[in-house]
């Protein structure tokens, strides 16, 4: 049996999870929620993580019913993400690894999402759509790498949603994306927005500028409601994502799609992807907010795979990095 | 904990040094190894050297501007207190 504890805090969630051979023993998490109209800044987010990380660590051990001696490896997010929050989490991971005499393992956050999605859904070799506040990538595995077939050329899809939420002062509790999703259900009028698929890549910054402008003009004149804009934004963004995912599937001859990342728990995105999959005779795999949204168990799971394949990270090499592409990691645990 | 800031006439740089006592040299070394891997975020204008002697962790900064020095020292103190809290809650270190 191999037990791995995973520390995640690359954005506004601080999570610590424990995995024992594919079983999630615990996975507590806290979210830094900012007032409507405001995003989360690195230093404030790091302060939030510092305030909660030791309590969350205690919870993770207690809920798993484990002592430090039962743990085989300490995994943490090496990157990508915001620098200050990443350092905060890495500091605690390094310290407990030394206190408990356990090996340390730096994990790529994106790989964490993919491996957690594979574990929970049992998808074998899916085309992966990774969509969150910081990342938008279509990924397929080949020859020991998770290869990026398409990605955003500017901001992430979740960042586009979050920033639109800020413009019209939608609550960030539990998350701006969740509240947009609920409001979109009440939208009835489709407001046409730019549709910006560029080959295998997507672009969201122009759509954001356009809808920010439209929001100011159309809401004040009563031409549409905030709900209509939420609906229109989701339909446009998600259509683009489904299009590039389908193209990657056609290219790879894949019959499986796995959606991971925080935006992946949006049921409308899952529904639209499901329609495309059904038309192609393919299977859709997705997870709920426990595992889609950043959490510690996903880092533990990727760490478990890496550790079992013989990897560890020496302390002097355990620096964090804000930029760390999915395809930089050699996948030593898959054929 | 002893700290001192001074403008060094020889190099023209601002220097700052900090000594932190730990219960044992083992604890001081753990803190050193937790705090050392991440380099200063900015490319120039500041350098930081962390060492351990006995059970004391020592840090010495050398910076071009007080503004940069203040940011680095302040962030180091945040990091240090988190490491020390972690050691209090989840230590003492296991025997090796």
UniProtKB/TrEMBL annotation, chain A:
Its subcellular locations are: Cytoplasm; Nucleus
Q: Which residues cross the membrane?
A: none
Q: Which UniProt keywords apply?
A: Acyltransferase, Cytoplasm, Metal-binding, Nucleus, Transferase, tRNA processing
Q: Corresponding gene?
A: OSGEP
Which GO annotations describe the biological process of this protein?
A: tRNA threonylcarbamoyladenosine modification
Record-listed E.C. numbers: 2.3.1.234
Which reaction does this chain catalyze? L-threonylcarbamoyladenylate + adenosine(37) in tRNA = N(6)-L-threonylcarbamoyladenosine(37) in tRNA + AMP + H(+)
* Location, primary (coarse class): cytoplasm
Q: Does the keyword Translocase apply?
A: no
Source organism: Oreochromis aureus (Israeli tilapia)
**Named cofactor requirement(s):** a divalent metal cation
Protein name according to UniProt: N(6)-L-threonylcarbamoyladenine synthase
Q: Which GO terms describe its cellular component?
A: cytoplasm; EKC/KEOPS complex; nucleus
What does the entry's cofactor note say about binding and number?
A: Binds 1 divalent metal cation per subunit.
Q: Which residues form the Gcp-like domain?
A: 29-300
- Annotated binding of a divalent metal cation, by residue: 109, 113, 130, 294
**Which terms does the record give in the GO molecular function aspect?**
metal ion binding; tRNA N(6)-L-threonylcarbamoyladenine synthase activity
Q: Where does substrate bind?
A: 130-134, 162, 177, 181, 266
Can you tell me which family this protein belongs to?
Belongs to the KAE1 / TsaD family.
Task: Give the matching Pfam families.
Answer: TsaD
TrEMBL record, chain B:
Query: Which UniProt keywords are present, listed alphabetically?
Result: Cytoplasm, Nucleus, tRNA processing
**Does the record bear tRNA processing in its keywords?**
yes
Look up the domain of life of the source: Eukaryota
Q: Name one GO biological process term.
A: tRNA threonylcarbamoyladenosine metabolic process
Which InterPro entries does the annotation name? CTAG/Pcc1 (IPR015419)
Q: Where in the cell is it found?
A: Cytoplasm; Nucleus
Record region (Disordered): 1-21
What Pfam families does the record tag this protein with?
Answer: Pcc1
Q: According to its record, what are the GO cellular component terms?
A: cytoplasm; EKC/KEOPS complex; nucleus
| Function as written in the Swiss-Prot or TrEMBL entry | Component of the EKC/KEOPS complex that is required for the formation of a threonylcarbamoyl group on adenosine at position 37 (t(6)A37) in tRNAs that read codons beginning with adenine. The complex is probably involved in the transfer of the threonylcarbamoyl moiety of threonylcarbamoyl-AMP (TC-AMP) to the N6 group of A37. LAGE3 functions as a dimerization module for the complex.
UniProt cross-references to PANTHER family, sorted A to Z: EKC/KEOPS COMPLEX SUBUNIT PCC1 FAMILY MEMBER, EKC_KEOPS COMPLEX SUBUNIT LAGE3
Quaternary structure, from the entry: Component of the EKC/KEOPS complex composed of at least GON7, TP53RK, TPRKB, OSGEP and LAGE3; the whole complex dimerizes.
Family the UniProt entry places it in: Belongs to the CTAG/PCC1 family.
Instruction: Tell me what this protein is called.
Output: L antigen family member 3
UniProt source species: Oreochromis aureus
Give the classification, highest ranks. Answer: Eukaryota, Metazoa, Chordata, Craniata, Vertebrata
